[in-house]
Structures are given as C-alpha cells and as structure tokens.
Design goal:
Length: 270
C-alpha cells in the first residue's frame, strides 16, 4: 500500500508537535511493509536526502507567510497526489484539511488526523480562525476516515459534525538517558538544578507566565531553561526573549534536537 502524507513541514529535526509525531510514526509503518512518501516544505526540510529510515520525501515550495504557508503547500501537495495516485492520502491537522473535498474530487481516499482545534490558538486573527474552523469542517465531513488523538477531540467531532473517529493517541518513544553534559556546559547549567520547558514560542505555551513564576519562586541555585524558537518572527517571541533577559537565571537555548535535546532532558530537575 502506498501512503502519501501532507500537512507538516518535514522531519527529522524540524520543530513542531505534528512533525515530531510523524517522525516517530512513519518509520514504524515502513517497518510494517507500507510505502510512505511525505510531502515536505522545502524551506523547512533540513535533511536534503530523498529518504530517511525508509520514508521517502517529496519537497515542494511553500510561501514564507504564516497565514498562507500551510494552505498553499497543501494545495500543491494534493495536486501532486492527483498525479502520484497513492492508495491513501493522510492529512494532518485542520488547516491542511481544507483541501479534503478536492482530494475526494480527484478520486483519492483520504484519512485526516485531527490533532486539536488550531483555531483556538492565540496567534491567529479572526479571519484565520474562521478559515481553520472551515478546514476542520471540510476535513471531518469529507474524509473517508478520521483519526482523533484523544477522546475529547473525538467527542467534539461527534457533536459538531455527527462523524465517528478512530481514537489513536500519540505514542511515546522511550528516551535514552544521557550521562554526558556537553550542552549543560555550553549554557552554564548544573545537573538536576534547572526547570525545563521545551516548546515553540507561541502565546498558548505561556512562557511569560512561567518566567514570572520562576522569578517569584526565588529558587536559589536553580535556573529556568527555555528550549525552542518561534516559527516566524513575532512580537511574542521578542517579548519572551526580552523578559528572559531581565530575569536572573533564565536561559534561552534556541531550537535543540538530537543529542543536545536528549542531554538537556536527561539532567533536568523539573
């Protein structure tokens, strides 16, 4: 069976929850004998090889605009799918799901994974939220099958669209604990003596609240470590960096992956 995947930036080592989910999922499907091709966004895909752990990549251009990136790339990806003719198109997230009706018109069999109500994210304005809500409606209504990553999302889809979903929670890759401390030395950290947050710099992750709480807690000998970056330059990103600079013992590392990320997880106190 040939599976074509769209709705994500790329992987491995590309920031984002859906990207991490796909990085773990699709090599396992390859092991089961499936032929998997992932359509990635050329501006994000760090790996330049055409395949990784058996997963094939098709790189397509996408505009560097937060509002247009996912929609335009998904449209190009589904047109490619019309030529590629996979057995299944697997679409991730409600934004890219806008093109589900077009995929069905092209005679494609579509599965949509609903990762959550993206239209509730604070970074989106009113128009963008309406478009994302429309993407959810079109994806849930026109997909051949739906995957929800939690019972809460499955209940929402049932109430809103009278459609059933397959509940498939995100799996967890058991991490390897690293004794090495190279990344700790780089940022002046002590094992077991720092609070760690790993996420994109977006308002709903509440970095500013955490920095305020850390300052008020006055944890002598501890540091607060913020790992991650913004998808696009944003005022929120600037606010976090500015506040972190004004509070003692707050460290911003930027985006980390691989051994660096594993080390900083392994030695965190909280």
């Amino acid at each position: 069976m040939r599976i074509l995947v769209l709705g994500l930036r790329g992987f491995p080592a590309v920031q984002g929850g859906v990207e991490t989910h796909a990085e773990h999922l699709y090599p396992e499907l390859v092991k089961l004998g499936y032929d998997v091709t992932v359509v990635v966004r050329s501006g994000y895909q760090v790996l330049k090889e055409k395949s990784w752990r058996g997963v094939k990549f098709k790189s397509l251009w996408a505009p560097s605009s937060q509002g247009l990136e996912a929609a335009v790339h998904s449209l190009l990806a589904i047109l490619y799918a019309g030529v590629f003719r996979p057995d299944v198109v697997h679409i991730h997230a409600v934004g890219p799901s806008l093109i589900t009706p077009l995929a069905r018109l092209l005679g494609l069999r579509v599965i949509v994974t609903h990762h959550g109500p993206d239209y509730e994210r604070e970074k989106w304005g009113g128009f963008a939220r309406k478009v994302l809500k429309l993407g959810e409606r079109l994806g849930m209504t026109f997909a051949n099958e739906r995957i929800a990553i939690s019972p809460v999302i499955a209940d929402h889809v049932r109430r809103e669209y009278q459609k059933e979903s397959h509940i498939v929670p995100n799996g967890v890759a058991i991490p390897k604990i690293h004794d090495t401390q190279q990344i700790l030395q780089k940022f002046g950290l002590r094992s077991g003596k720092y609070v760690l947050l790993v996420s994109r710099f977006v308002p709903e992750k509440r970095h500013l609240d955490l920095v305020n709480a850390f300052e008020r807690a006055d944890m002598q000998g501890w540091k607060l470590v913020l790992v991650g970056a913004a998808d696009h330059g944003s005022s929120y990103d600037s606010k976090v960096l500015a506040q972190a600079e004004n509070v003692r013992d707050v460290v911003c590392t930027g985006f980390l992956t691989g051994v660096d990320l594993a080390e900083i997880y392994s030695h965190a106190g909280l």
